[in-house]
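Model it.
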Amino acid sequence: MNNDSGAILLVDDDAVFRQTVGRALQRRGFIVAEAENGEKALQTDGPADFEAALIDLRMPGMDGLELLQKLRRRIDDLPVIVLTGHGSISTAIEAIKLGAYHYLTKPCDISELEIYLRKAIQQRRIERENQYLRDTIERAHPPAGLVGRSEAIQNTLALIDRLKDSDSPVLIIGESGTGKELVANALHHQGKRRGRPFIAINCATLKPELLENELFGHVSGAFTGAVKRKDGLLAVADQGTLFIDEIADMDPGVQASLLRVIETGVFRPLGATQERKTDVRIIAAVNRDLAKEAAQGRFRQDLYYRLNVLVIPTPPLRDHIEDIPLLVGEYSKRSNAAHKGFTFTPEALNALQNYSWPGNVRELFNICERALLLSNERNIGAEAIQSLLSIGTPMKPAPIYSNQNERRNRIAALDDVEKLHIKSVLEQTRYNISQTAELLEIDRRTLQRKMVKYKLREK
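Modeled.
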């Protein structure tokens, strides 16, 4: 069924109404299929062939609310307009809550009905076209940041492709800075849940009671200060994906509640007497040996076994250093707006490939950012890169100095680079100590010592 106006499923037990409305819509260019009740509507060819449905709420047997839910279960983006009598407005509002596009009271004006039908069909066509374009782009390009021709990265991309449409939990394991959240994003945005919410939460940043409230939400009066209801992330992410980072830091009590969500799909907000349902895919990430954590009693074994079904490892950068030129190219593309015209010379790329990368891709991008901020030249060479790398973990092999003077000169040069870099970041943050320390990936005390050493004070 295909027509410029659209194909409509009309369901009403009133034969006269069906014929009158059906013919009026056909004269306006719609294709109309009629059904006298919910059972026959579900037997009609479709409903995937229809672009909208028009159903009466009060019908013998299966009522309109039940039919609405079954139609939406078959095809969740089908616009449904419900028809109701003047005395059933509350039922119509309930239909809206269940996903109906709109409701009209009988007898309805055909011109008004036509406007709503055309608007609903056009909106659905635009959304489907946009989704098609997004799908085409995603198929043509790998997820941002997950670039590389190495066997390690190709294995990761292959696993993402195999697991993206599964509803089962996924556990992403890997060192800090290897792109675990990028993998979670790719699983969601390339899978069948794309277009639905993708919500991320980091267990390491929240106290247990705050984490529980963030995940499950609360009802009004659940605790002091809870003046109104708050939906938790499990409700917000319904039909989508909840990414739980650093899950090894999750409190055992919260772990037990999460396990129940995974196994039953239900949870109870804080202070609530009734449970809520959620259809959410759980993706967890960890940078520790979760099996060891479970064996030593620091993580629930039952939750570990439930998460450890589908596992995606993210390789450390040192295991695919051949991808560094591609990763630097990816970074350069992202930062072109701010750093247009900067390039990394082959010698600079070679220096990057000779480094141990304890901080992985995150550290690589950090070094690239520093180089761009501090460089006076548009072609960034090996010397600039080596100076920045030497501030952190030493290059391998370590530099050999011919004499103490050379060593002292080298240290002085490094101090100059470090001073310039710290000053640049301080100016970016307007001398906000906490922000600067976070960007530099050092603690506040270390930053304050270096500020004293280099006499860096806000003017």
